[in-house]
Amino acid sequence: MAEPTAPLADDEARLAELALRLADGIVAALPGWVARCVADRSTGAVLDEDAVADAGRRAVREVGPLVRDLLAADIDEQRTGPLALVREAVRYPASVLSAAGAVPVQRDADAVRLFPDDAYDLSPGSFAELHPDLRVPGLEWGAAKAWVHRRRHVGGTAG
Q1: What does the alpha-carbon distance between residue 15 and residue 2 come to, in Å, rounded to a whole number?
Q2: Three-class secondary structure of residue 107 per DSSP
Q3: How many CA atoms does the CB half-sphere of 57 hold within 13 Å?
Q4: Which residue in 24, 36, 65, 94 has the fewest CB atoms around it within 10 Å?
Q5: C-alpha 127 chain-centroid distance
Q6: Rounded to whole angstroms, how far apart are CA atoms 55 and 90?
Q7: What is the mean pLDDT of each run of 10 residues along the chain (159 residues)?
Q8: What is this structure's pTM?
Q9: H-type alpha helices, 42-154
C-alpha cells in the first residue's frame, strides 16, 4: 500500500465531516424507521398513530444525542458503534407494538443470543436498514475511520 500523501490532520477532518453527516442522517431517519418497524410488525394490531409518532420523537430525543456524542468523539475513545446505539432504539417501536398487542416474532437462536431484548426482530443489520440513504454515508464513515485508525496505529505516517 502506498504511503499517504495528505497530512493525518486532513484525514481526521474528513472523518469528522463524514461522522457529522452520518449522525445527521441517523437522527433524521429515526422517526421513519420507528414508524416502518411498527407498520411491518403490527399485523392485526390496532395502532395508535400518536403513540407511533411519539415513539419516533423519543428515539430522536434520547438516542440522537448518544449517536451525535459518539460520532463526535475521537475514534480512540469510541467504545461502541453508532449502529449498536440504533439497535438499542428497538425499544421505541417495540413499546408501541407491545401496547397494541402485537405478537412477538419467532427468531432463530442466533438472533435471540445477539439481541435478547428484541422480541419483534427489529434490530437493523446495517445503516441501510435504518434508511437506504444511509448506506453510502455509513460505508464512507467506516472506511474513513479505518483509514485514520491505520494511520495512527499501524505504521501510517505522522501528520
Answers
A1: 20
A2: coil
A3: 6
A4: 65
A5: 6
A6: 10
A7: 76 97 98 96 88 98 98 96 96 96 93 94 96 98 96 70
A8: 0.90
A9: 49-72, 82-88, 91-99, 109-114, 127-130, 135-153
